[in-house]
Specification:
Number of helices: 2
Order of helices and strands: HEEHEE
Strand content: over 45%
Largest sheet: 4 strands, antiparallel
Structural class: alpha+beta
Helix content: 10-25%
Radius of gyration: 14 Å
């Protein structure tokens, strides 16, 4: 029996939907994740790189992203940090580090 999409897939979909709603569609360029645990929580650390054309909507979305509420079924976004924003001509590359935590049922 399948448990559904993993946290990385859910996070990618949530980021893409958030950007689309903000009027600045993004494309996933790179993604990596590793399981993470503390004494009380389990989850994953995600490193993602997104690309998009430059726009004022993208700039606003990036600025609001650390406080955005991204809904992931069975997981919470505990922390989201915009590590780098690199601009090169007609493309912007946004590097993110995200910590997700599994929700207990």
């Amino acid at each position: 029996m399948s448990r559904g999409p993993d946290a990385e897939t859910l996070l990618r979909r949530a980021l893409e939907a958030s950007a689309e709603a903000a009027g600045c569609p993004v494309t996933l360029a790179e993604s990596d994740w590793a399981r993470w645990a503390s004494a009380t929580f389990t989850g994953a650390r995600h490193l993602l790189a997104l690309t998009a054309p430059p726009s004022p909507a993208l700039d606003a979305w990036i600025a609001a992203l650390p406080e955005a509420e991204l809904r992931l079924r069975g997981h919470l976004v505990a922390d989201l940090v915009v590590e780098h924003v690199r601009r090169a001509g007609d493309s912007v590359r946004v590097s993110l580090e995200v910590l997700t935590v599994e929700q207990r049922e």
